[in-house]
Amino acid sequence: MTRIAILGATGYTAVELIKLLLRHPEADLVAATSRQEGNPPIAMVHPSLHRRIDLNLEDLTPQEVASRAECVFSCLPHGASASVIPHLLDAGCRVIDFSADYRLSDPQVFAQWYGEKHHDPDRLGKVVYGLPELFREQILGARLVANPGCYPTSAILALAPLLKSGLIEPEGIIVDSKSGVSGAGRTLKLTTHYPECNESISAYNVGRHRHTPEIDQILGSVAGTKVEVVFTPHLVPMDRGILTTAYSRPARQVTEEEVLQALRDFYAEEPFVRVIDHLPGTKDTMGTNFCDVTARLVRGRVITISCLDNLVKGASGAAVQNFNLIYGYPETTAL
Ligand SMILES: NC(=O)c1ccc[n+]([C@@H]2O[C@H](COP(=O)([O-])OP(=O)(O)OC[C@H]3O[C@@H](n4cnc5c(N)ncnc54)[C@H](OP(=O)(O)O)[C@@H]3O)[C@@H](O)[C@H]2O)c1
């Protein structure tokens, strides 16, 4: 059994994580933090957990967390996460960080895109990016894992095999993504109020979404050369799910079947990536840890289409997959 604490337990990713951990035979949830006053039972904040978990939310210091738990899932926003993680690591905890704090390897790139100095810059570049399909060996036994962003997971899983096999050019890649509203978290924001986003689809943060350097960095490391994607996210009036359509140029003459076969070969042994022939839709992966991927060749462009549940493969499911790898449990446990 592994004693687990969850930081930021009132959020959307946390409730999904708790539901997964409740069915994990080796997970013992011993602490859940929140800044809310009065230490309410966690089921009061997440009614879906009623009669499933007997635990109260507490505003704990990192030292208090470390005295109870050996593994910490940080579901805090960026900035808040990096201000506590060094203390948890010093106290001997292993940490899976949901935020973007440890995903980028360069503190200057972090400052440029996040508009603030990093709290723990010396650690950047030494933290494994928690995408098992690409970095499984480095995740095994890791002390700190940077859980990937939801949009980057959908884009990287679709494009990495094609870049790695040299089937597509690293330049000129366009990534067009649509996300359900839970992607913005439970914390109230004007843009995610019901009348603002219902019955409306809009692009946002065009050219400046913070997942752009993350996609660039990982695809660049796979391609072995600089990659700069044009990434445009859209907010879609649904609860959850991400659909990503990416456009790239073939590096040589290829057939659609060759592109699909490259994806099938790359993911042949992967439990959570399904290379499909039909066109994916977000409902196909809702509530699951799957990412569905397919490809088409249209007018000389390779189009990859991928979808996943932002709260599962895009966050909490990926975190449990990483937890399993860190502790040597079967990778698919609870998933
Ligand atoms: N939503 C997604 O689809 C998704 C996917 C991948 C990654 N992520 C990342 O996962 C993390 C959690 O996302 P989420 O969607 O679960 O967010 P959320 O629903 O907004 O929850 C975040 C929680 O963190 C706590 N919190 C907020 N600001 C804080 C601060 N300054 N200091 C300490 N605690 C603070 C809040 O709890 P209290 O107010 O109760 O203290 C809140 O419930 C974020 O870093 C996000 O970028 C989210």
Specify the biggest β-sheet: 7 strands, parallel
Order of helices and strands: EHEHEHEHEHEHEHEHEHEEHEEEH
Pick out the low-confidence regions: none
Number of H/I helices: 11
Ligand kinds: NADP nicotinamide-adenine-dinucleotide phosphate
Which CATH C-level class of the largest domain is it?
Alpha Beta
Q: What is the CATH architecture annotation of the largest domain? A: 3-Layer(aba) Sandwich
Find the structural class using helix and strand composition. alpha/beta
Identify the strand order in the major beta sheet: 3-2-1-4-5-7-6
Plain-language structure description:
There is one protein chain. The strands form 2 sheets. A 7-stranded parallel sheet has the order 3-2-1-4-5-7-6, with helices on both faces. Strands 9-10-8-11-14-13-12 form a 7-stranded mixed sheet. The protein is globular. Helix 3 packs across helix 4. The mean pLDDT is 97. It has 2 domains: 161 residues, Rossmann fold (3-Layer(aba) Sandwich); 161 residues, 2-Layer Sandwich (Dihydrodipicolinate Reductase, domain 2). It has 11 helices and 14 strands. It is α/β, with parallel strands linked by helices and 335 residues long. The structure holds NADP nicotinamide-adenine-dinucleotide phosphate.
